[in-house]
Amino acid sequence: MSLSSLRSGAPAAAPSVRPSESDGVELVRIGYVLPSRELAVIGDLGAERLFALADFAAGSGYDSVWVSDSPAGRARLDGLSLLAALAGRLPDVHVGSSVLIPALRHPVLLAYALASLDRLASGRLTVGIGAGLPGAGLRRQFAAVGLDGENPFARMEDAIEVCRQLWSAEAAVLPRSRFVTVSGPVDLQPRPPTPGGPPFWLGGTGPRSRRLVARRLDGWMPYLQEASRYRDGWDEIRQLAAGYGRHADEISAAFVPTLLVGDSPREQAELRDYCARYYDCEPDDLARRRPGVFAGSADACLEWLAGFVEAGARTLILRFATLRSIEDQLATAAHALVPALRRLTVRSEREPR
Question: Less packed terminus of the chain by CB within 10 Å, N or C?
């Protein structure tokens, strides 16, 4: 599909066949984060171009489409609203948040919204979450919704627990919370179609995050620069999970890389533009501001991503570091990376070796 036809919203390419898992072989799954913030940076706060990108991804072999969220933060469409639209638009594709800060919404309303989303997605929802990056930006977001912003990690845990209490109850229940007061029982309707509610995957990288994933959550989706650090973190999560009486196959291992496919002067200029306008930094400083970034040829990108697969990642959720060639990057990755990544089959941890 050409750049012009994709931008015009023309029908996406015919869906590629997604192979199935068998004989103890686990396949790498590929997701795509829609550039709602990138488009906002260049002045586009509409949905038409995002929908065209989502349609193309769904028809080009991607297994899932993800949406970022930042209420009262950097401008972009509301993540939950966009996910609701995608859930109906993409009936055969998984949808998820990458990432949502649960503490910025009242936990009862969050539980209600996510339960409704899981219904709209027919159980195809994954809730990627984070506590938020420490700093003035996070404090401003909490202040905008009337919160002091203290203990953001504990507030995140609390919101998760309130959601799970409401999703698992068979009748009205008074949810227990450290940070909000609920004065009467809540009978949450509708409840999610997924037993216990949609899975929570955590984007945190530190020891506290790894412990929470191992003890209580459904997946890990960190931002890391080196595959060796991913391997160490994932090995620790698996060991901790065993100590909590859980098996590794209860926890999904994902990775959220930011790529720029290509190493010509044009791509190098695009990367400089992206860093300056999105993160207000130079390319050499981007990995510190937002770990998990790689720019290079398709072969070099594939080799870098393969390192994370070898380290344990089974879902790769791709972002692209460009404001100029958004459609081109998505199409290039669909043809040069996605089929090759699908061939990186690995022995399932569920099967005896």
Answer: C
The secondary structure element, H or E, covering residue 270 is helix 265-274
Q: What are phi and psi of 147, to 5 degrees?
A: -115, 155
Tell me the H-state helices in 90-146: 107-120, 136-144
Model pLDDT for residues 65-92, shown as the tens digit of each residue: 999 998 777 778 999 999 999 999 999 9
How far is the CA of 331 from the CAs of 1, 12, 275, 293, in angstroms? 8, 11, 22, 19
Report how far residue 30's alpha carbon sits from residue 139's, in angstroms, rounded to the nearest whole number. 33
- Other C-beta atoms closer than 10 Å to the C-beta of 13 total 17
pTM for the structure as a whole: 0.91
How is the chain split among helix, strand and coil, in percent rounded to 5? 45, 15, 40
Strand intervals (E) in the chain: 25-26, 29-33, 64-67, 94-100, 125-129, 200-202, 219-220, 252-255, 258-261, 293-296, 315-320, 346-347
* Residue range 285-315, pLDDT digits in tens: 988 888 999 999 999 999 999 999 999 999 9
Compute the distance between CA of residue 4 and CA of residue 7 in angstroms, rounded to an integer: 5
Question: Strand pairing of 219-220 and 200-202?
Answer: parallel
